[in-house]
Amino acid sequence: PVLVLDYGAQYAQLIARRVRETQVYSEVVPHDTPVEQLLERDPAALILSGGPSSVYADGAPQTDPALFETGVPTFGICYGFQAMVRSLGGTVENTGTREYGRTELGIAGDGGVLHEDMPGHHPVWMSHGDSVSKAPEGFAVTAGSTDTPVAAIEDVDRRLAGVQYHPEVAHSPHGQEVLRRFLHDIAGIRPQWTTASIVDDTVAALREQIGSGRAICGLSGGVDSAVAAALVNKAVGTQLTCVFVDHGLLRAGERAQVERDFVAATGVRLVTVDAVDRFVDALSGVTDPEEKRKIIGREFIRVFEQAARDLQEEAGAAGEHIDFLVQGTLYPDVVESGGGTGTANIKSHHNVGGLPEDLQFQLVEPLRALFKDEVRRVGLELGLPETIVHRQPFPGPGLGIRVIGEVTQQRLDTLRAADAIAREELTAAGLDRDIWQCPVVLLADVRSVGVQGDGRTYGHPVVLRPVSSEDAMTADWTRLPYDVLERISTRITNEVSEINRVTLDVTSKPPGTIEWE
Ligand code: XMP
């Protein structure tokens, strides 16, 4: 792998993704991983990420000089670039000037390998205080900016290079090409991490892990569990059974999508548990968001657990045992939880946490190494329909946390109808790829006066919450075209009789979360 040493940058995961986009496998590791441990991983290259502070600041993360004596191709970015320069005998100075944001990069000479044939001046994204004033011995300086004479260096013979700017962000339009040139041309890595190879390798590993055992997988209708199940199904076929719990908090058409489209695409064995009444009963009288989440989570586990026991009994009658539980854990969750191996990473109830000991499953996590965009590509490669692969994220507690106030069957039906209209219009307008998700929220305890067809109405408002995001950690409200908003508003108020007002949430995250509860 290409190992990205994380110096505390919010960018480290993004760098790993960009590396993978050049079809080279990459992982994030803590910056203080001992050099011997890095070498044990047999890295094809190392990338030192940006970091928060000055290389001279108290408590600044240290770089072991041995890092640059390993012979492994190494690329430094921002803080990592300065750490490299300082370790190898160049000069990093606190010049008193700061560069932040969009900056013009000027290419020096022929631009070297990294910047050859690029426009002589082009924009890059900078974010630093200290600057490199002198490159270490043996390095060519191939670019600079007004405030930073040394903004890119390379030593092709030693396969070391670095840039002051952030090549991984979209604001550096040539950055991806610079990374590619470092990896392919300077480090000499062959691009082999393709969607097809991911599928082949994962399927082989799953066959190895599961052998002739039996597995179950809880489907949420979301893309992660669907792709995880499709991979396991490809690997071991009928040794896998999928369980889909219909808790009545789903959006319109979701159950059919799983029962029909997913099964048609994969041929997977599917058991659907109808638990609608059970969930609505359990939520009766409850208005507190955390209490709702707890109840939904608890009921979900009980239902899933029962389904698993039933399957276990069935299998037992045939002299078999279910050994494995498939989970759709993604790489970002693995990194954030410290990268431990074999630990269940349960973020939310629909990942089916807290199964009782006596079920004793081993975890199977076929997406552990993948980012979301890779999961989607794998899904398409496996023949899953677009409707599943490019589905908006949907919270495990479903519409239960989008009805503000008590959840009742009627309120769920109202919200489901409004939500279906919003999704239909967004899809028709071709906006699905521009938004991360657009929750529709029913303010069930609020009423307002309206007028419709000469009559007074006294109905409920819904809130449209369209957001754009890379990873749901932060989000901005999406500037949807007015004509699309108008169509959604007109249709909802005409077609859903309980709703007489459509409002728009224009809050970013932070301070607002994406969901209202
Ligand atoms: P918030 O509301 O925290 O949501 O900004 C961030 C993202 O997570 C989704 N979400 C959940 N997903 N179980 C899930 O699987 C949950 O309990 C849950 N709560 C929020 C939300 O839709 C958004 O994409």
TrEMBL record:
<dbReference type="Pfam" id="PF00958">
    <property type="entry name" value="GMP_synt_C"/>
</dbReference>
<dbReference type="InterPro" id="IPR014729">
    <property type="entry name" value="Rossmann-like_a/b/a_fold"/>
</dbReference>
<dbReference type="InterPro" id="IPR029062">
    <property type="entry name" value="Class_I_gatase-like"/>
</dbReference>
<comment type="pathway">
    <text>Purine metabolism; GMP biosynthesis; GMP from XMP (L-Gln route): step 1/1.</text>
</comment>
<dbReference type="GO" id="GO:0003921">
    <property type="term" value="F:GMP synthase activity"/>
</dbReference>
<feature type="active site">
    <location>
        <position position="168"/>
    </location>
</feature>
<keyword id="KW-0547">Nucleotide-binding</keyword>
<feature type="active site">
    <location>
        <position position="166"/>
    </location>
</feature>
<keyword id="KW-0067">ATP-binding</keyword>
<keyword id="KW-0658">Purine biosynthesis</keyword>
<feature type="binding site">
    <location>
        <begin position="220"/>
        <end position="226"/>
    </location>
    <ligand>
        <name>ATP</name>
    </ligand>
</feature>
<keyword id="KW-0436">Ligase</keyword>
<dbReference type="GO" id="GO:0005829">
    <property type="term" value="C:cytosol"/>
</dbReference>
<feature type="active site" description="Nucleophile">
    <location>
        <position position="78"/>
    </location>
</feature>
<dbReference type="GO" id="GO:0005524">
    <property type="term" value="F:ATP binding"/>
</dbReference>
<comment type="subunit">
    <text>Homodimer.</text>
</comment>
<dbReference type="InterPro" id="IPR004739">
    <property type="entry name" value="GMP_synth_GATase"/>
</dbReference>
<dbReference type="Pfam" id="PF00117">
    <property type="entry name" value="GATase"/>
</dbReference>
<feature type="domain" description="GMPS ATP-PPase">
    <location>
        <begin position="193"/>
        <end position="391"/>
    </location>
</feature>
<dbReference type="InterPro" id="IPR022955">
    <property type="entry name" value="GMP_synthase"/>
</dbReference>
<dbReference type="InterPro" id="IPR025777">
    <property type="entry name" value="GMPS_ATP_PPase_dom"/>
</dbReference>
<dbReference type="InterPro" id="IPR001674">
    <property type="entry name" value="GMP_synth_C"/>
</dbReference>
<keyword id="KW-0332">GMP biosynthesis</keyword>
<comment type="function">
    <text>Catalyzes the synthesis of GMP from XMP.</text>
</comment>
<protein>
    <recommendedName>
        <fullName>GMP synthase [glutamine-hydrolyzing]</fullName>
        <ecNumber>6.3.5.2</ecNumber>
    </recommendedName>
</protein>
<keyword id="KW-0315">Glutamine amidotransferase</keyword>
<dbReference type="InterPro" id="IPR017926">
    <property type="entry name" value="GATASE"/>
</dbReference>
<dbReference type="Pfam" id="PF02540">
    <property type="entry name" value="NAD_synthase"/>
</dbReference>
<dbReference type="InterPro" id="IPR022310">
    <property type="entry name" value="NAD/GMP_synthase"/>
</dbReference>
